[in-house]
Amino acid sequence: MIQIKDKIYWLGLKDWELRKFHGHELSTHRGSSYNTYLIKDKKNVLIDTVWSPYKLEFAQMLEDEVGIQNIDMIIINHSEPDHAGSLGYIMSINPNIPIYCTKNGADILRKFFHKEWNFNIVKTGDTINIGDYDLVFVEMQMIHWPDSMMTYVKGANLVFSNDAFGQHYASSGLYNDEANTCELYQEAIKYYANILTPMCPLIKKKIDEVIALNLPIDIIAPSHGVIWRDNPMQIVDKYYEWAQSYNENNVVIIYDTMYDATKKMAEAIGEGLEKSNIKYKIFNAATTDRSDLITEIFKAKGIIVGSCTVNNHVLSSISALLDELKALKFKNKIAAAFGSYGWSGESAAIINKKFEDIGFNVVVPPLKFQYQPTAEVLKMGIELGESFSKSM
Length: 392
Ligand code: FEO
Known about the structure:
Number of strands: 22
Helix content: 25-40%
CATH architecture of the largest domain: 4-Layer Sandwich
Number of domains: 2
Structural class: alpha/beta
Number of helices: 12
Bound molecules: MU-OXO-diiron
Strand order of the largest sheet: 1-2-7-8-9-10-11
Oligomer: single chain
Radius of gyration: 24 Å
Shape: elongated
């Protein structure tokens, strides 16, 4: 337990080994942490719990630091099992603890645990006094679950933001000023790109709403990764920027290939971009971690995707990637498609059509070519790159 403000403590667990999250959907190369917090005011208040595999370790920490029988209330900012997973075990030890959460939170907890606990429903602006401090609740519906909320500690100028502003990042320190800034921002933007992109419009609106409340904020304490105490509003400013058609004015070229013909074309297109002084990166979708690819696409202004044709379709890594871009509601990118083929040659047109379904602006016609590209055909790739650059 580490004190982060008068009477307020971090009581979390660092998971240095974690490499996959949400089942196997999201990669977590730098581990993660489950941050819970304890306020020892006139009332003992626990903010969130940890993922259920750690319930025994967590319960022991609570016993050592406060005693589960002495907890006066539990705030559940979010019911997803990485935060509420240990609630069942804690409540089995002391079933009378009042739980404060949103209405949607109570509905979800009932469906996860099949228990009727002492739920106290809170809404935006509701305030409870716990002694020297007041807790003020702010609903964050669909950022990123229907139940999500934040808890602001009036008097401590601290906000428990849960998933928002978090990172899947285990590090030796507790605070942003103790972490490696490059790693921290890489994990923060990866978290945003892979989890929060569909909610961009809601996030911008919510930040506007919270800023209008004019609450003093000294610390933003998320439920994953480091706590923002050095210029905490920097991450709010970043979220605001990321929520509004963010890009770093570069291009990603992503391909999958069977006999390197499509790979050669990817490189030729890169050559065309380079001639036009456009920064680019090239990735093979089949061998690159998909969560990292999504992050790279999030940062790019342009996306150029290629696949050879197989069974009148595209290779499976490309198909899966394009489906995910659609599901994540990626918008405001310029795009182009390419691919080799043997006889039927549908791949580039399929990618092009998928771009249109996603809502990307296709700025050059799809380029397809048979079998291995000649120097003349590769020149068409260079020209595609140059032509694409004109839309950057
Ligand atoms: Fe939405 Fe960290 O769980």
